[in-house]
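Design request, tokens follow.
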């Protein structure tokens, strides 16, 4: 994996791309193997501490009775991480609407993806992992994914996207690395 580019994990669902994204974002305790970032071998602990699974919020898989709004989570992230930007700047950067920011992540529909990235960015995460996406998903979300990925790349983040085809990666960024898992 490389920082400052889109790392595409290309292969059919079930060939390992989705689970790799889950492992990097600490959404599973299954891990055996070696991880290299910028050609340096790394342990899993600092990776998962700095990673964010796109589509989720601070609760991840947990289902609390009441969730904080997206806006509140961005504000908490800025405060806890001592981010240089304020919540308004991050919300605007990722084009999260005012109406969406006042809701929990489960209630914002397609805005969920960029709202999730904004929360992770507020917490100053450096590794952003998408769930596995087929070609239709990528095309449907292409505009917002392209903008969000560009911001993350410009901030030297590692962006991981497991998908079916190399073309999906090329549609989203001119800066990419392909990892084939077929």
């Amino acid at each position: 994996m490389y920082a400052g580019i889109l790392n595409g994990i290309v292969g059919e669902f079930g060939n390992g791309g989705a689970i790799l994204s889950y492992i990097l974002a600490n959404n599973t305790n299954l891990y055996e193997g070696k991880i290299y970032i910028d050609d340096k071998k790394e342990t899993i602990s600092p990776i998962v501490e700095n990673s964010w699974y796109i589509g989720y919020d601070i609760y991840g898989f947990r289902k609390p009775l009441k969730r904080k709004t997206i806006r509140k989570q961005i504000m908490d992230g800025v405060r806890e991480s001592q981010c240089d930007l304020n919540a308004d700047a991050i919300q605007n950067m990722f084009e999260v609407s005012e109406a969406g920011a006042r809701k929990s992540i489960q209630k914002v529909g397609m805005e969920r993806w960029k709202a999730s990235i904004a929360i992770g960015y507020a917490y100053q995460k450096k590794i952003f992992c998408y769930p596995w996406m087929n070609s239709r998903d990528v095309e449907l979300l292409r505009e917002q994914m392209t903008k969000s990925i560009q911001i993350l790349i410009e901030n030297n983040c590692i962006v991981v996207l497991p998908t079916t085809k190399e073309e999906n990666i090329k549609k989203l960024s001119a800066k990419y690395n392909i990892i084939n898992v077929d």
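Comment from the thread starter after seeing the answer: thanks! Residues 69 and 104 are 4 Å apart (CA to CA).
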